[in-house]
Design brief:
Blueprint: H1 9-22, E1 38-42, E2 45-48, E3 53-56, H2 59-62, H3 71-83, H4 94-106, E4 113-117, H5 120-135, E5 139-143, H6 152-157, E6 173-176, H7 191-209, E7 214-220, H8 235-246, E8 249-253, E9 277-280, E10 292-296, H9 298-303, H10 319-334, H11 337-359, E11 363-369, E12 372-380, E13 385-386, H12 398-409, E14 412-413, E15 415-417, E16 420-423, H13 431-449
Parallel strand pairs: 3-14, 5-6, 5-7, 7-8, 8-9
Antiparallel strand pairs: 1-2, 2-3, 4-10, 9-10, 11-12, 12-13, 12-16, 15-16
């Protein structure tokens, strides 16, 4: 694949100038960033105005599950715009109803009611509100290694450092340690030990916080930005049992892990667990139009049969977003994207990444499934010291910056967070593209190796 436009540096410079003058970017010191001006994208690639093409191993922000510009989804958006561009959420609209039906068909258990939002953070906000109203309790437990969004409650539930600047100690938010054997907070030596000790720690936390005060426990089924730590066998089932024991609502955040990313429609299927509420976004329509939502169990939905739910959004279930979701789900079904994600993970990405780990001293551990992988980069494999310190910036982050620059030099746009790089291409990435990405990672890891001891 080649760029669909001739290189035009002058146009790129104009785009960057307008960006610098008027766009305020998220998570950034505005004067210290230099955003790439993107000219176009298709499938697993995007390109700039200078004609440089990049294989996107980030899927945007882990949401272009069917790649960029899929013609069937583009056509569906165009057709919906010609038919009914927008309509208020209080009405029954065919494409909104169809999107909800298709999602509900794929969620586990009885999560058959869908509340639409504009994205994942709003989905978390509303799931927590539902849990609090359903139980009459206020506290919500979340894991330290987590990310749930940037809105008020979601950012306070988040465990990573992005919450620090906005962390007002949101009333009722309590954090705990979820299992992560490679960097175990429980001094575990086996997955079974990690599982058992993590569950005991969670139940102790509940006991000391007061079970009757806790509305919900929220977990990413497979934590995403925090490191793609697949939970050990039995852990999520154990959390389910604890929630049932104390009347606590179990919320699974599938914003990143859902819609084929792990090789299942939802990651919960890997662990045979059904939550009371499940949040989704991103891959539901490959990010083509903003959309998220909460899948709601019958028991919680019944709470609001005679009692109004005090929440809503102007663009809830926006017709263009729902049309994109319907088309995306149909594409994933027809083209077997979920099955392909599982296959490419098992036969190309997983084996390829493990082979890189064997050869590169900077790779401490490989974790993941489907098209959802993390490489934990270290200074020393024996001590497992991270390649850069936690939340490193500036000179302290130089090794990861050098790795990222090397990846881009070899045509790969990497997903980097702290001392990790994630391999999260489109779920329909081809075998040739996946191998191309592995080759570029191989070259870039040689740069990371220079910082090991």
């Amino acid at each position: 694949m080649t760029p669909h436009v001739e290189p035009d540096p002058q146009a790129g410079a104009a785009v960057k100038a307008a960006d610098r003058a008027h766009v305020f970017h998220s998570w950034s010191a505005q004067g210290l960033i230099d955003p790439l001006a993107v000219a176009g994208a298709e499938g697993s690639y995007f390109w700039d105005y200078d004609g440089n093409r990049y294989l996107d191993f980030t899927s945007g922000l882990v949401y272009t599950n069917i790649g960029y510009q899929h013609p069937r989804v583009v056509a569906a958006i165009q057709e919906q715009a010609a038919k009914l561009t927008t309509f208020a959420p209080a009405f029954a609209i065919d494409v909104r109803s169809e999107a909800a039906r298709l999602i509900a068909e794929r969620t586990p258990g009885d999560l058959d009611k869908i509340f639409f939002t504009n994205g994942g953070a709003e989905a978390v906000e509303n799931a927590v509100r539902m849990a609090r109203l359903h139980t009459g309790r206020h506290k919500v437990l979340s894991a330290f290694r987590s990310y749930h969004g940037a809105t008020s409650t979601a950012i306070n539930l988040t465990g990573d450092p992005r919450r620090w600047a906005s962390d007002t100690g949101s009333a009722g938010v309590v954090r705990f340690w979820a299992p992560f054997l490679y960097r175990s907070p429980f001094y575990a030596e086996t997955e079974q030990q990690e599982c058992d000790r993590a569950l005991a720690h969670l139940e102790d936390t509940i006991a000391f916080e007061g079970p009757a005060t806790i509305a919900a426990i929220i977990l990413e089924t497979v934590p995403g930005t925090a490191g793609i730590m697949t939970p050990p066998p039995g852990y999520l089932a154990g959390v389910r049992e604890i929630c049932d024991k104390y009347g606590i609502v179990f919320v699974l955040d599938e914003v990143m892990a859902g819609f084929g990313r792990t090789g299942k429609w939802f990651a919960a299927e890997h662990f045979d667990v059904v939550p009371d509420l499940m949040t989704f976004a991103k891959g539901v329509n490959s990010g083509y139009v903003p959309l998220g939502g909460v899948a709601i169990s019958q028991k919680i939905a019944a709470t609001f049969d005679k009692r109004p739910y005090p929440g809503g959004l102007t663009y809830s279930g926006h017709p263009l977003a729902c049309a994109a979701a319907v088309a995306t789900i149909q594409v994933m079904e027809d083209e077997k994207v979920v099955e392909h994600s599982a296959h490419i993970g098992a036969t190309v990405l997983g084996p390829g990444l493990r082979e890189l780990a064997e050869r590169h001293p900077s790779v401490g551990e490989i974790r993941g499934m489907g098209t959802f992988w993390a490489l934990d980069l270290v200074k020393n494999k024996e001590t497992r010291e991270p390649l850069v310190p936690y939340n490193a910036t500036g000179e302290a982050n130089a090794p990861m910056a050098a790795f990222g620059a090397a990846a881009k030099k070899h045509g790969l746009w990497p997903f980097i967070n702290m001392n990790r790089t994630h391999a999260v291409p489109a779920c329909n990435v081809s075998e040739a593209e996946a191998k191309e990405g592995l080759s570029a990672l191989d070259a870039a890891l040689s740069v990371a190796d220079e910082h090991t001891s």
